[in-house]
Write a structure and sequence with these properties.
Blueprint: H1 3-21, E1 30-33, E2 39-43, E3 48-56, E4 59-69, E5 75-82, H2 89-103, E6 106-114, E7 119-128, E8 131-140, E9 143-151, H3 153-156, H4 159-166, E10 169-170
Antiparallel strand pairs: 1-2, 2-10, 3-4, 4-5, 5-9, 6-7, 7-8, 8-9
Length: about 170
């Protein structure tokens, strides 16, 4: 199994199941700041945090994920993985996109330049069964950042999901 597929699919599957089991009632949005990840996002409530090591073609890498699920089963995921020294951003991003194609039909993919520093990234939407997923993936130096929403199409294409995806801020 490819590393990129493990990072994104693993975050989605492991994080989403934890979040669905631990779903909390809807609340007003709040800022979540990753303790070690150097990013923040707006979430409807406090997330469940998890860390694990994932085996990849590039070696064993730490993956850190924060997940929040609504009572309806929709999931918000944000996380990061440390990349090996010398990792090429375009190679990493292409690998993520290729891994997602294996997970389900890709509906759209767009290259982006993220933030004032113009970090390379991708916005990808794809489907797996009756669920749709949308993510923003950004490479900043030796770190891969992922924000993702999972749910029915109305949620994934709706304003709450858009606000969450766009709330990703990389701290200095």
């Amino acid at each position: 199994m490819g590393w990129w597929r493990v990072v994104v699919a693993g975050a989605m599957v492991a994080g989403a199941w934890v979040a669905v089991v631990a779903a909390e009632p809807e609340r007003e949005g709040q800022t979540y700041r990753s303790r070690g990840g150097g990013y923040s996002v707006q979430l409807p409530g406090p997330p469940q945090e998890s860390s694990r090591k994932v085996r990849t073609r590039l070696g064993t890498l730490p993956l850190h994920v924060a997940t929040y699920a609504t009572a309806a089963g929709e999931a918000y995921l944000a996380g990061y993985a440390e990349l090996p020294s010398g990792s090429d951003a375009e190679t990493v991003l292409n690998g993520v996109a290729e891994g997602l194609i294996r997970e389900g039909p890709q509906l759209s993919q767009q290259k982006i330049l993220f933030g004032m520093e113009q970090w390379p990234g991708r916005e990808i939407t794809w489907r797996k069964g009756s669920w749709q997923m949308r993510c923003r993936v950004v490479v900043r130096e030796q770190r891969l950042y992922v924000v993702m929403v999972v749910g029915e199409e109305a949620f994934v294409s709706g304003p709450a999901a858009k606000q969450f995806i766009e709330s990703l801020t990389l701290e200095r």
